[in-house]
Design brief:
- With about 150 residues, the chain is an all-beta fold.
- It is about 0% helix and about 40% strand.
- The chain has strands spanning about 5-10, 15-20, 30-35, 45-50, 55-60, 65-70, 90-95, 105, 105-110, 115-120, 125, 130-135.
- The strands form five sheets. Strands 1-2-3 form a three-stranded antiparallel β-sheet, with no helix packed on it. It has a three-stranded antiparallel β-sheet with strand order 4-5-6, with no helix packed on it.
- Strand 5 and strand 6 form a beta hairpin.
- It is globular.
Amino acid sequence: MEGYAYFGTGTAPGIVVKVALGSGANPPTRAEALTLDSGENSLESAVIDPSAGYVYYGTFTSAGKVVKVDYALLGAIYGTEMTMVEEGHLNDVRFYSHSPSGNVRLAIYDDQEPRNLLWESGSTGITKAEEWLTVPISSGTPTLCRC
């Protein structure tokens, strides 16, 4: 069975890269990446908590930060949360694809413990590289999202 490694870049903003380690004669390959928020720069160190499914990165910034990345569900990498202070209407969810292959299922969760699924897309094919994939809320479940 193939495992994964995660590392952070020294860029601004930082990027968390997931690498498939390969097995047998198969060499390691880049699986996917997540660009962090502005200010989450120069990722210098990491601690993995496999029981909780998080990787914690320290930044080489002034002041320093600790960035928490969720990788738990099926080895996927998840983005950070955003809280809107005003009411808004969500029309679509977008995903930036680096590779024109595979499928993605997008989801929105609340910030409760445990997290509750508010909306999810169906499995959507990724057909273009270096472009945004847009999934309308109306094509997911439920077809309206009070997120």
